[in-house]
């Protein structure tokens, strides 16, 4: 893309640089090409300077720029599709995509489709295993933190320390 931008910049300077001020320097020509890529048209000035090369330059730049943008979009879609084919949690991704799409449509004032969720459908085993593992890890961390807090608090208050009793109950105040 950078090579194309540089080649069109140099071509614009060579073809129109003497007659059009906005094509006289590299910086100004790059700015004009940026404006062309955003949709601003300079075809009147370009056609006035050269009736053959002007429209050819303009049309070629627009077509090449559109092809590059389409190629970029197709590349992004192919990347997303390859991710979706290898992803285990595609239901989560599609639900998130539907949420964003419906939010975007409601932002534009369009009605969004109602979604039906099947709460009765069982979750896959790997979701349950992951949830249980995460829950166990969180509970272990909470247990570790509460033990440390209890030990810290008992240092300052000897009367709250755990002492063995004759019955073996544990806590004696």
TrEMBL record:
Polycystin cation channel PKD1/PKD2 domain: residues covered: 2-77
Annotated family: Belongs to the polycystin family.
Compartment(s) where it occurs, according to its Swiss-Prot or TrEMBL record: Membrane
Segments traversing the membrane: 56-78
Cited InterPro entries: PKD1_2_channel, Polycystin
Membrane topology annotation: Multi-pass membrane protein
UniProt organism field: Branchiostoma floridae
Name of the protein this chain belongs to: Polycystic kidney disease 2-like 2 protein
Keyword Nucleus attributed: no
Record's keyword terms, sorted: Membrane, Transmembrane, Transmembrane helix
């Amino acid at each position: 893309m950078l090579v194309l931008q540089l080649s069109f910049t140099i071509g614009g300077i060579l073809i129109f640089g003497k007659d059009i001020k906005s094509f006289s320097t590299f910086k100004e020509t790059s700015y004009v090409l940026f404006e062309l890529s955003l949709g601003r048209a300079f075809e009147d000035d370009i056609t006035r300077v050269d009736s053959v090369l002007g429209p050819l330059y303009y049309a070629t730049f627009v077509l090449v720029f559109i092809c590059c943008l389409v190629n970029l979009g197709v590349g992004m879609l192919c990347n997303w599709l390859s991710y979706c084919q290898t992803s285990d949690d595609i239901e989560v991704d599609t639900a998130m995509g539907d949420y964003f799409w419906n939010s975007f449509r409601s932002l534009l004032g369009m009605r969004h489709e109602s979604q039906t969720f099947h709460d009765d459908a069982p979750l896959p085993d790997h979701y349950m295993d992951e949830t249980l593992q995460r829950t166990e890890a969180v509970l272990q961390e909470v247990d570790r933190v509460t033990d440390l807090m209890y030990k810290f608090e008992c240092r300052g208050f000897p009367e709250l320390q755990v002492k063995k009793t004759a019955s073996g109950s544990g806590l004696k105040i």
